[in-house]
Design goal:
Layout: H1 3-9, E1 14-16, H2 19-25, H3 34-40, E2 47-50, H4 54-67, E3 71-74, E4 91-94, E5 101-105, E6 108-111, H5 117-128, E7 130-132, H6 144-150, H7 157-160, E8 171-175, E9 183-187, E10 203-213, E11 217-224, H8 227-238, E12 245-251, H9 255-259, E13 272-279, H10 283-292, E14 296-300, H11 306-309, H12 321-330, E15 334-336, E16 339-341, H13 346-356, E17 361-362, E18 365-370, E19 373-378, E20 381-383, H14 387-399, H15 412-415, H16 422-431, H17 443-446
Parallel strand pairs: 2-4, 3-4
Antiparallel strand pairs: 1-2, 5-6, 6-10, 7-10, 8-9, 8-10, 11-13, 11-14, 12-13, 15-20, 16-19, 17-20, 18-19
Helix pairs in contact: 1-4
The structure holds flavin-adenine dinucleotide.
Length: 467
């Protein structure tokens, strides 16, 4: 890999080869997983390149193509499947400076890929009282391009479902990895080619996202003596069509007491909770519903004193993958899984799985609307003992009808549905014929004959190259 020759071709484009910066920008939140930590700790790129415009990006891609150098795109590096890590070294393209908010209209916003979600909402709120439909709990740091290429849903999914559902992304502009890179405009069905493809088949240079009305969202925490009461309450609240919520997150004791340090003063021992974001104008209805459902409101941002609210993180930073982050900060032996409890049996499945691993797996649910039905994902916390035991917990979930999106694997397929995505693979053949984009993340490209039922973990050969 002739990085010196590449550098000469990058004249006028910002790049960094300081080893400390290169290493820092070659990392994401892979360390969440003890398995990925072991596999990927040594991974580093050779050069960080920071284009400011699509024209600069095209020059970088053409130069890398000419020199046969792998390219891994990076937004803010908050992904936690090792998605943004350059397994074969090479160039990490930092898209953070392509962050322009280009236009805002009723129901839509157009931005560069590096725009941070919270900055987009700030602009759309000020412009016309609108906000993004969905955001990860890393709202304050994650980029829109990284969310589309690496994320799946989050805050707002209770109303709008997942990122890959029709209508949740309107248009993407994507640049290919060829001798003369092309810019393609994708809409409708074609969006599935690049959403959640980890940047393996094109670099997103512009996004058009749908907007919804922005309201004042209030953080409320409701307490219950038993976790299943919190789960049933969350399900029933999600089914209340008249109460506008943005987040409904039941979490089992003792997670809040042990790991939500700043909120600890509100929790009784043994109490499970449901964290909610509710529209301010729906608060009275929400409180009436909660009273009737037997919930104990233990924190209400509308009535809490400034003293009580001081230093508290927003509710969404207790939810989705922030629950795991808070646990990890207190107890590094904690890890997690991502599961789905399919409709219509979600509550029965939650109850079964919650009872199966006492003292080892702690339930955490996120209610969502999927294909018109209310159901829930789980991001249960797991006390890690060994990889074999983790795999067994995964197997037991799957045998009981709860698919696991395994966050301890760095490939698209193993972290997702464990099958080839023919559409993404076909698009990669068109857009990246030399396989230079984010190598090692798409098994279907690296090893078309791979047997997903083998029970083994895919090991990318090129991984040995890095470090
Ligand atoms: C504490 C915590 C909480 C989280 N909560 C959620 C959540 O609620 N929901 C959720 O879905 N995820 C969540 N995640 C995962 C992650 O934050 C999201 O996926 C986030 O949106 C990633 O954005 P990013 O800018 O950091 O992307 P990065 O990590 O930089 O990149 C993610 C992937 O996209 C690729 N990529 C980046 N930019 C581009 C581009 N312009 N073109 C093509 N490919 C690109 C990268 O190569 C990588 O494969 C969480 C992670 C953490 C650590």
């Amino acid at each position: 890999m002739d990085v010196s020759a590449l550098k000469r071709d990058l004249d006028g484009i910002k790049f960094d080869d300081n080893p400390a910066i290169v290493q820092q920008k070659s990392r994401d939140f892979y360390w969440y997983s003890p398995v990925l930590k072991k596999q990927l700790d040594h991974v580093t790129g050779d050069l960080i390149v920071t284009p400011k415009t699509e024209a600069e990006l095209i020059r970088v891609l053409a130069a890398c193509h000419r020199h046969g150098i792998p390219v891994t795109p990076r937004g803010s590096g908050t992904g936690n499947y090792g998605q943004a890590m350059p397994l074969s070294g090479g160039v990490v393209i930092n898209l953070a400076e392509m962050n322009e908010i280009k236009s805002i209209a009723p129901g839509r916003v157009v931005t560069g890929p590096g725009a941070v979600l919270a900055d987009i909402d700030k602009a759309t709120r000020a412009h016309s009282g609108q906000e993004l439909r969905l955001s990860p709990s890393t709202y304050n740091t994650a980029s829109i391009g990284g969310f589309i290429a690496g994320g799946s849903g989050g805050v707002g999914s209770i109303n709008f479902g997942g990122l890959r559902d029709f209508g949740n992304v309107l248009r993407l502009r994507v640049v290919t990895m060829e001798a003369e890179p092309k810019a393609l405009e994708l809409t409708g069905e074609d969006l599935h080619k690049v959403t959640h493809a980890y940047g393996t088949n094109g670099i997103i240079t512009e996004v058009e996202m749908p907007l919804t009305a922005a309201y004042e969202w209030l953080d409320v925490i409701v307490g219950f003596d038993a976790f299943m009461d919190a789960a049933r309450y969350g399900n029933a609240l999600a089914c209340q069509d008249g109460i506008l919520t943005k987040l409904i997150t039941p979490i089992a004791a003792p997670v809040p007491q042990l790991y939500f340090k700043r909120h600890q003063k509100f929790f009784r021992e043994g109490q499970s909770i449901c964290v909610v974001m509710v529209a301010q104008h729906g608060l009275d209805a929400f409180l009436a519903f909660t009273r009737r459902a037997g919930g104990d409101v233990i924190f209400n941002a509308a009535t809490a004193t400034p003293e009580e609210k001081k230093g508290l993180p927003p509710a969404y930073e207790l939810a989705w993958n922030h629950t795991t982050l808070r646990a990890l900060r207190v107890d590094p032996s904690i890890t997690y899984l991502q599961s789905l409890y399919p409709f219509p049996n979600q509550l029965a499945l939650v109850e079964k799985m919650d009872a199966m691993f006492p003292g080892e797996v702690f339930s955490h649910l996120e209610f969502v609307r999927l294909d018109g039905n209310i159901t829930c994902f789980g991001l249960p916390l797991v006390k890690f003992t060994s990889e074999a035991r983790l795999d067994e917990i995964v197997r037991l979930h799957e045998e009981n009808g709860c698919p696991i999106f395994n966050p301890h694997r760095y490939t698209l397929e193993e972290g997702g549905m464990k099958q080839t995505d023919a559409v993404q693979l076909a698009f990669k053949r068109e857009t990246d014929p030399q396989g230079l984009l984010n190598p090692g993340k798409m098994i279907a490209w690296e090893n078309p004959d791979y047997d997903y039922r083998s029970g083994r973990t895919f090991l990318f050969k090129g991984l040995q190259r890095a470090g």
